[in-house]
Amino acid sequence: MTASHAASDASGADLALSSVTKRFGSFTAVDDLDLLVGRGQFFALLGPSGCGKTTTLRMVAGLEEPTAGRIDLAGKDITRLKPYKRPVNTVFQNYALFPHLNIFENVAFGLRRRGVKDVKGQVQDMLDLVELSSYGGRRPGQLSGGQQQRVALARALINRPQVLLLDEPLGALDLKLRRQMQIELKRIQTEVGITFIHVTHDQEEAMTMADTIAVMNEGVIEQMGGPTELYDNPATTFVSNFLGQSNLVAGEVLGQSGHELVVAVEGSKLGVPMDRARSTSGAVWVGVRPEKVFLAASGTETEDNDNVLRGAVVTDVSFIGVSTQYLVRMPWSQELTVFEQNTGARESFRPGDAVDLHWMAAHTFVLDAAQDAHAGDETYDADLAPAGAGT
Amino acid sequence: MTVADVGRVVEGTEDEPPRRPRRRSGWATGYLLLLPGLLWLVLFFAVPTIQLVATSLYDQAGSLDTGYAMTWSFGNYLDALSTYRQPFLRSLMYATVATVAALLLAYPLAYAIAFKAGRFKNLMLVLVIAPFFTSFLVRTLAWKSILSDNGFIVQTLQTIGILGPDGRLLATSVAVVTGLTYNFLPFMVLPLYASLEKIDPRLMEAGKDLYANGFTSFRKITLPLSMPGVVAGTLLTFIPSAGDYINSELLGTPQQYMIGNVIDNTFLVQLNYPIAAACSVILMIVIVIMVLVYVRRAGTEELV
Question: What confidence score (pLDDT) does residue B20 get?
């Protein structure tokens, strides 16, 4: 169907942003941003609201003009090009479907503006692709949210843009439909082979769909890479908290031993592979993901290459089916989180049990202590937290 | 199940206070609220309209002193049309020109208020309504001095040669249409503003994103979406303009008299009630027909 002929000539192209800055009055929305998106990639810009991700997208679409810097698409400078002259199309946050036109005319809008022939056939093919073939005569107001979302996608895709921009396209859908559309979007992207840039604040959405994720915060990119890389080896406390959850404890670097950095944490020595250490001297945050940690009854022997923190007490247990989430209080009164898979093979604990925390040194990461340990943690409320807590 | 049934069921359950009276009063509230307006309409619209139609069919031979005989004289309508064809056509023409002029002036203004005014939006809306703080008559009289032969407008136009040395504005069609346009402009601006203001600016962004330049975006998106405002505004301007007689009275001469002046004159000077009533009914019917055709062609019912 369409996808095949769309793919044949829709050449996804390299998009490059160089030192792009956007200021609104005294507020800097995007700060000296450099970004390279490769041809045919599914690229996600992930960050909390107000981090500058939508502004970045709008500059690529031409709906905002950068204060400084330059944007190139397929080697051509498009920084000051009018939006209607760019080979870029957008799926807007609330779809922005034209309420006075039916679905067919909404999808045909871009083709008609460019004077393309065979509008009818192309629109029909595109409606087939998004599985709305029989809805051409309806008005947007008569469609459900998920259907409107697909019309918005069809309306943008039919123009075979070099880059397709998606601005929180799934934000208005309920959870179940969102999961379904994530898979659908990924399928369509693979079929048409166009470069997708997807803006979202939902880390799970970004990780499910994107090849590459750029995590943005306060106008700059904190870290960029594949989902696994970002999750397993975060570069900043913001990334470690915003993408999933992390346990961060304060430590002091003691020195190096072979390929490992040795860090002292409240009297214990922890090892960290050198390539996972973002800081190699002085005060640091030592981090580990909750699901990488195993709980063991107090005093259990460990394997040689395990990191151990002893003397914890279980304070809270929540059973959530596939896993059990434990909150444990450390001797220095910090609370850490541990997720245990409910495989049945491991011992379970109750509040008040004394436990030790074990995890593989290879799962540990080290971050510079100059950063706020709670950056990017949307559930953390500084006013409610006990003094000295560091999760 | 009707409302009354629901009430009975609820009432039937024990230890529940009877709820029927409250429901019934709720049901009656709507009608009670309608009543004053309805009475007003019957008394001051329905009755006079029926009386007016009846008057238009009276025998012209009667007079106020001797009374009129109901003779179903449909001939009155032919008399009215043949005698006052000119003022009828003039009214429709003046009203059309004034409505088009008001639309051309009001659309950019309403657009600017809706999308570009920022924090001055409310101030500008107040300024649009501000003329209503003085009487219609006073404002029209003010135009009389603005357009007068010694006024600066006429002098300026004479100096730059648009008007001849003896040219004037007052007592011309231009003056009457200008007056109509001015007086009914707010009725055009407000509905236009209301419908433009409702348009999501992201739709225009979507238009630009889909290869429509500024003008095409306007033509294909903004204009169609503002049609309800255009229709409401043109009706609110055209209908009172067509029946107006103050502007032609104060700014024109008998050569510019509109059907309103004729009705005024026939009722109050000639005391020819049947003909005056026939003129009024004809004006009403013509306007209703034109409005129906217009609304159907504008196709507003298709708009969301």
Answer: 52
Residue A224 CB partners (closer than 8 Å, separation 6+): A35, A212, A213, A214, A215
Q: For the residues B182-205, what does the mean pLDDT come to?
A: 95
pLDDT of residue B163: 86
- Chain B residues lying within 8 Å of A156, measured CB to CB: 209-210
- Segments of chain A with pLDDT less than 70: 1-13, 381-391
> Is B208 in Cβ contact with A100 (below 8 Å)?
no
CATH of A2-230 among 3.30.70.360, 3.90.1200.10, 3.40.50.620, 3.40.50.300? 3.40.50.300
pLDDT of B1 strictly over 60? no
Which of A89, A96, A159 is nearest residue B202 as measured by Cβ atoms?
Answer: A96
pLDDT exceeds 80 at position B171: yes
Read off the amino acid at residue A270.
Answer: L
Q: Which of A93, A94, A100 sits opposite B304 (nearest CB)?
A: A100
Distance from CA of B216 to the nearest CA of A (A): 8
The β-bridge partners of A273 are A260
User: What's the pLDDT at B116?
Assistant: 93
Q: What was the pLDDT predicted at A116?
A: 92
What are the start and end residues of each CATH 2.40.50.100 domain in chain A? 245-368
CB B245 within 8 A of CB B261: yes
In a mutational test of the A interface, the residue from B196, B204, B205, B211 whose CB has the highest number of chain A CBs within 10 Å is B211
C-alpha atoms less than 13 angstroms from C-alpha of A330 in its C-beta half-sphere: 23
* Of the candidates A93, A76, A69, the residue with the CA atom closest to the CA atom of residue A13: A76
CATH pick for B86-302 out of 1.10.3720.10, 3.30.750.24, 3.30.160.20, 1.20.1730.10 = 1.10.3720.10
Hey, is the C-beta of A102 within 8 angstroms of any chain B C-beta? no
Predicted local distance difference test score (pLDDT) of residue B11: 41
Per DSSP, helices labelled H in chain A are 2-9, 53-61, 103-113, 119-129, 145-157, 175-192, 203-209, 227-232, 237-242
Q: What secondary structure letter does DSSP report for A93?
A: T
Pick from A70, A80, A66: nearest CA to A23: A66
**CA–CA gap between residue A246 and residue A338 (Å, rounded):** 10
CA dist A235 and A237 (Å) reads: 7
Class in CATH terms, A245-368: mainly beta
pLDDT band at B85 (very low <50, low <70, confident <90, very high): very high
Count Cβ atoms within 10 A of the Cβ of residue B152 and give its class: 0-12 exposed, 13-18 middle, 19 or more buried: exposed
Is the Cβ pair B208, A113 closer than 8 Å?
Answer: no
> Quick one: pLDDT band at residue B222, thresholds 50, 70, 90?
very high
Q: What is the pLDDT of residue A378?
A: 74
pLDDT tens by residue, B224-264:
999 999 999 999 999 999 999 999 999 999 999 999 999 99
Q: How far apart are CA A48 and CA A243, in angstroms?
A: 11
Map out the domains of chain B as residue ranges.
86-302
pLDDT score for A138: 94
Whose tokens are 């001055």? That residue is B120
- For the record, the structure tokens of A278 come out as 């973002």
